Amino acid sequence: MISAPSDLAMPQGDTAPAGDTQHEAAGNSGNNASAPAPAQQTPPPGEATPGQKPPQEDPFALRLREHEASQRQHWQQQLGQWRKEVTEDPQLGGANLPATVARAQLALDRFDEGKRIGQLLEQTGYGNNPDVLRFFNRLADALMEDGLVQGQAGGGMPPLEERMYAGWSSRNGRA
Predict the structure, then answer these.
(1) What is the pLDDT of residues 63-97, one digit of tens each?
(2) Phi, psi of 148 (to 5 degrees)
(3) Spatial separation of the C-alpha atoms in residues 87 and 130, rounded to whole Å
(4) Global pTM?
(5) Neighbouring C-alpha atoms within 13 Å toward the C-beta of 123
(6) Residue 156 φ/ψ, nearest 5 degrees
(7) Which of 137, 142, 146, 169 has the most other CB atoms within 10 Å of its CB?
(8) What is the CA radius of gyration of the chain?
(9) Is the Cβ–Cβ distance between 139 and 149 less than 8 Å?
C-alpha cells in the first residue's frame, strides 16, 4: 500500500519499501499531526507531470512511423514519375494529353456504372499510371463507332486465288 511519507528526509513521490510497516502504521495511526497528502493523479499516457521526464516512446512505434513516412514519400515520388512519363509520352502526353484523359474517362464512364473503379483509381493514384491510361485509351478505341473505309482504285491486295494458292496466278494463265 502506498501512503504519504511521514519522514521529511524521504523525497516526495518515493514510497516506503514494501516491508516497511512503520511508515504504513504512521499513516493509519489516527495521528492527525500530518495530514496524508492527496493521492497523485497519474497523467495520461505520453504526458509527463511537472518536474518529471516525459516517458520514452516505444522504439517499435517510432520505427513504424518512420517507415510509414518513408513509404508515403516513396509513393508520392512514384506518382510524380508517372505524371512525368505521361506528359512526355509522344502518344499520350503533350498536345494529346487532354484527348487522352477524355478518352480514358469515356471508357471508364461506359463500364464503371457504380463509379467505384474511378474512385479507386483516383484515391490510390493509379489513374496516373501510363499503362492504365493506355489500357483505357485502347478500350475507348474499341468503343468508338466504326468509320467509313475509303476504297482505293486498283486495290492494294492481290486476287483471292493468289492469296490462297501461293505461286498460282490467274494473270499468267497457269492452272
Answers:
(1) 999 999 999 999 999 999 999 999 998 888 888 88
(2) -75, 130
(3) 9
(4) 0.49
(5) 6
(6) -100, -10
(7) 137
(8) 40
(9) no
